[in-house]
Amino acid sequence: xxxxxxxxxxxxxxxxxxxxxxxxxxxxxxxxxxxxxxxxxxxxxxxxxxxxxxxxxx
Length: 58
Known about the structure:
Structural class: alpha+beta
Number of helices: 1
Order of helices and strands: EEEEEH
Shape: flat
């Protein structure tokens, strides 16, 4: 892990990027939310472990 990295979080299921604050999805990467590593993992981990065989990406 490298401190202070910023990540985008997306959904393979929805083919969209997460909005800022993790509320909903959007198509435009430029408008996507920016997350610290822990926040991105918090968003993606449930999808990777549960409802989707295709993992979300960070």
